[in-house]
Amino acid sequence: MTENTSKKNEDRDPNALIAQFQILQQQLQNVMIQKETLNMSIMEIERAIEELDKTKETDAYKITGTVMVKKPVENLKNELEESEEALKIRMNSVEKSEKLLTDKLKEIQSKLQEILKK
Asked: Could you give the CA distance from residue 111 to residue 78 in angstroms, rounded to a whole number?
């Protein structure tokens, strides 16, 4: 049997589709958790930048491991802004994965509905 024939049979097999649907649901759930974690990290960084903007101090402390290190406020802001940018890039990637998974789930759901109508 060729790969295409195998794929077509799999597309008609409700058990295979249900299994694939469940796997994709689990993957989507993991992506949603990643997205929420990234979102919380971005919000945390934004609040830290706001606080650094408000301060009249020239130095602030950054926790590195188990040590607090004194650094110029501008350096800390730059580090935070770089981290925020990296997290936003990662968020875009996660959102693309979320869309792909959602689209694939809708496609499988349609196939399952067609099979069940027969």
From this structure: 50
